[in-house]
Write a structure and sequence with these properties.
The structure is a homotrimer of 337-residue chains.
Chain A lengths: L11 H15 L11 E6 L5 H12 L3 E6 L7 E2 L12 E2 H11 L2 E5 L7 H4 L3 H9 L4 E3 L6 H15 L6 E6 L9 H12 L3 E5 L9 H14 L3 E4 L2 H5 L4 E5 L14 H5 L8 H4 L6 E3 L12 H4 L6 H23 L4
Parallel strand pairs in A: 1-2, 1-5, 3-4, 5-6, 7-8, 7-10, 8-9, 10-11
Chain lengths: 337, 337, 337
């Protein structure tokens, strides 16, 4: 039995196998991998696209999805073992994970950090506790990484670019009125480096470097492939000659829980919106963004509405890669089938 | 491919075909028109009856419904093309419609006006934008009209009255503590006039006239059938000799966004509750109301609990007419089937 | 047609038949008792475990569950017949029950008391009104009793103890920061006494006696079986020689709606957490609690993590007993099948 918590826990070959199966499913292959099975979709943060694509994908595989709205505040859950539970939490994750494991065949979880204390939140404690105590596979629907989005992005890149190895991937910070979760940024550097792309990260200031866990993992991935990992603050240099541009906005970790002080650094990226002039510097690059996406703030309409934009395809691919991954997890549970 | 946004976009003959099929489904006919298909039910306003009847109907047609709770405030969506999205909206309806179209085979939407600015809200901008950008049929689950309720009402009238042509339909404003959406009132005048009924509207004051779009459409429908359309403020005259009474409360459009000033006009309708004395003036009329319904405020218990009341039948018919309409839309998508 | 509102409406033999079928379902028996049928799950209070186990169980029986979130406040419903509905309630339970009965084949309801006025709330008015006006079976998903939890508990006891008749069952009040619903406590005394167990209730003070309806029913059940019903405040005496310990915290009824004054009585139970020392006084008893459960407040970790703890098994059994009960209700609706 395996979980799908991060792409780093899976080899490139294993992930490529999932992507190949996703292409077959997109082309019309059918599967009854979840026939007679149920999957709990537990949302500690709301979702429309993730909820839809998981629910529909599970039904298409013959299974049944149970959507549980467990918003922070409505289902406070204790994660510390041995705790005296005299505070807000009515339930320990031990019981939640054990009981859900009796009802369903897989548990998928969305749980964002609270933007309060990165020291503890960087450990992704809730999904890790579920994975420890559940007796069924646990799937990450976005915590501090977003591995399903990674697979959907890589599928879209391969559809458009063919082999991605040694092509250059630019993750660019883009403007947004508020500091956001770093999950998709962490995920972008993981998946691009894992699949042998040269990796560039364009940020307004060094305070926007991602957590060391992800910077180091990307470095290790690049070292294994013999590719380059460059962090840049110069826009023109960063866009020069790249094959793929990926946009994401996030909050600077040193200001976690103290966001007002981040404002002057955020202002340095005011000109970072992706537009035609920047795209002209690239090697005729494709461009994408996970959705939702603020038009004319993160990416100009002229770029979004051009053939270079892969965002709709990437969003559709969520359905296909998730089906392929659930199928792979179901196969590992019951290797004889 | 067609949408179902308003009954005015469909001919009487087309709608009658849907109603005939609904009667067959109510009598026990089965259908697998949505086998293998998914439908997104997107609720910008909450619902229990619409949500239940759509969900169950879709399952009975062999399909799968995904219910998305997109309440105003939780999923603020940009509708203006070219907008610089630096406000509240995180997503443009363009992307929302395109991506949902990749996941599902139809999109049904409930989105009430905000009661702030009728000049813009009368254009029904959200569902119109979805219909423009979606590549699958869009179905109206109540916006500023409620076409599914119209079909359910007409089905109940035909079940009880047989042919409705040239019979007289009275839409009466009834009391309610608060100003409500005009959607069902707009819809009542559309469907009664479209099916050749003489139309009367009883209101406490001319300020309760409906938007010109619906008054004109009803006039056009009546002209095409050679029937009468009368707006009255005299209760006795209005009930006299009618064959069907339909109750609805709504807010007066001139006071939109400024409801306190409407109170004196609302007070003029204090005696408009449907009761036995008023019903005695009719031609042994049937009476109905969409649900929910405040007993002894809008309609007296003695009328609700009499055989003349069609409200439960009308509510049940929602299930059947929606199934028949979804079946018709599915057939149009795939004419060979 | 029968409802499942309380175990007291069913004979021990009928309930044992349901439990026997639940064991067969747990062992892998399949059933299509709800094929082509829909069940409305109406939640006036939120739920994750009940919602999951009902939804999954209904799907496993071939049916379809519609989950309706009808939280108090979002769907205020009138329950008084003849009421002039000029207050908050937009809908009368008469219409709600009649219309849902047209859409679905069964209606399951969760509706806790409001902790305001026990004199009216002890009549369980909402579910009773639904049962009166619905034309399909109504199932209790927890109101002021929790009969599905009762069956799950009894199933777990029988799995572990074999025949439970004449064994001794201790319901012990345990600490909790807030006064809780008495539903599970009421239910525990009903089901243990109904199945012929000697019943002990351990409470910090006589103010924690349960409502007379349940105390009397338990006395009647014990009289019918010739068993004992003892209410105790002495911890050592209460645990001495018992075969099963069941933990629950609840608020004292005399302080209903006036909870601050309950605090000194609650303090008397400060030492009532179940721990190893107390369990050592028993006849090697099993111990359980419905979930959620505060560890180290209600029951010490060392007891929860010991083989004596049946809570996870009891929670799993919810799925099986609910399936068996829905199957029984479906059979009563259509005896020929």
């Amino acid at each position: 039995m395996r979980h799908f918590l991060s792409t780093q826990d899976w080899s490139q070959e294993e992930l490529q196998h999932v992507l190949d199966r996703a292409r077959a499913l997109k082309a019309g292959a059918s599967s009854s991998a979840l026939a007679g099975k149920s999957v709990a979709l537990v949302f500690f943060n709301p979702s429309l696209r993730t909820r839809s694509s998981f629910d529909i994908g599970i039904v298409q595989l013959g299974g049944h999805a149970v959507v549980l709205d467990a918003r922070a505040g409505t289902w406070p859950m204790e994660m510390v073992e041995g705790a005296v539970m005299d505070g807000e939490a009515e339930e320990h994750v031990i019981e939640a994970a054990k009981v859900l494991s009796r009802y369903v065949d897989m548990i998928a979880i969305r749980c964002f950090p609270n933007f309060q204390d990165w020291t503890s939140e960087r450990e992704d404690p809730l999904i890790m506790a579920f994975a420890k105590h559940a007796s069924v596979p646990v799937v990450n629907m976005e915590t501090i990484v977003h591995p399903c989005q990674e697979l959907a992005l890589m599928m879209a890149l391969q559809e458009k670019l063919g082999r991605v190895e040694n092509k250059t991937f630019l993750l660019t910070w883009v403007p947004h009125p508020r500091p956001l979760n770093t999950a998709v940024a962490n995920s972008a550097v993981l998946i691009a480096s894992k699949f042998g792309m040269n990796l560039r990260m364009l940020i307004p200031d060094d305070v926007y470097r991602l957590d060391d866990r992800y910077m180091s993992a990307a470095e290790d991935n690049c070292a294994a492939h013999g590719t380059r990992f460059e962090v840049m603050t110069d826009v023109e240099a960063a866009y020069s000659g790249v094959d793929a541009v990926y946009a994401k906005s996030w909050g600077a970790l040193p200001f976690y829980g103290n966001w007002d002080a981040e404002a002057p650094y955020r202002a340095k990226g005011a000109g970072f919106m992706i537009d035609d002039a920047k795209m002209a510097l690239t090697n005729n690059a494709v461009v994408s963004h996970c959705l939702p996406m603020r038009r004319n703030v993160k990416i100009a309409d002229s770029v979004v509405d051009s053939p270079a934009f892969l965002g709709i395809e990437e969003a559709e691919n969520r359905l296909h890669v998730q089906k392929a991954m659930l199928e792979a997890l179901a196969r590992d549970m019951d290797p004889a089938s």
